[in-house]
Write a structure and sequence with these properties.
Helix content: over 70%
Number of helices: 2
Strand content: under 5%
Largest sheet: none
Number of strands: 0
């Protein structure tokens, strides 16, 4: 039985990792688009560049950090709920068949 639980945990880790990568990529694109529409400037590519004001670099870092973390939390929680629901249906179907 411990092997079954361990296998499910590994499945969730793999799914969670892929979801995390996709979420980070998507959130970066959405936040960059929103930044450009709001400020009228492209997002800073290099925050260490002296061509970008300190306020803009810090502002973008804060927006990006908060936005990425919120996206990760929302997507991870939603995915976990879906995975647990799917796993519950799968387990209950197995019990009916047995």
């Amino acid at each position: 039985m411990a092997g079954k639980t361990e296998k499910q945990d590994m499945a969730w880790r793999a799914i969670g990792g892929l979801i995390g990568i996709a979420t980070a990529w998507g959130a970066k694109k959405v936040i960059g688009f929103a930044w450009e529409k709001t400020t009228g400037k492209k997002p800073p590519a290099d925050s260490e560049s002296l061509e970008i004001s300190l306020g803009e670099a810090i502002g973008y870092a804060v927006v990006m950090g908060v936005g990425m973390q919120v996206a990760q939390i929302v997507v991870a929680r939603t995915a976990r709920k879906r995975y647990d629901a799917w796993k519950g249906v799968k387990d209950s179907a197995r019990d009916v068949v047995s």
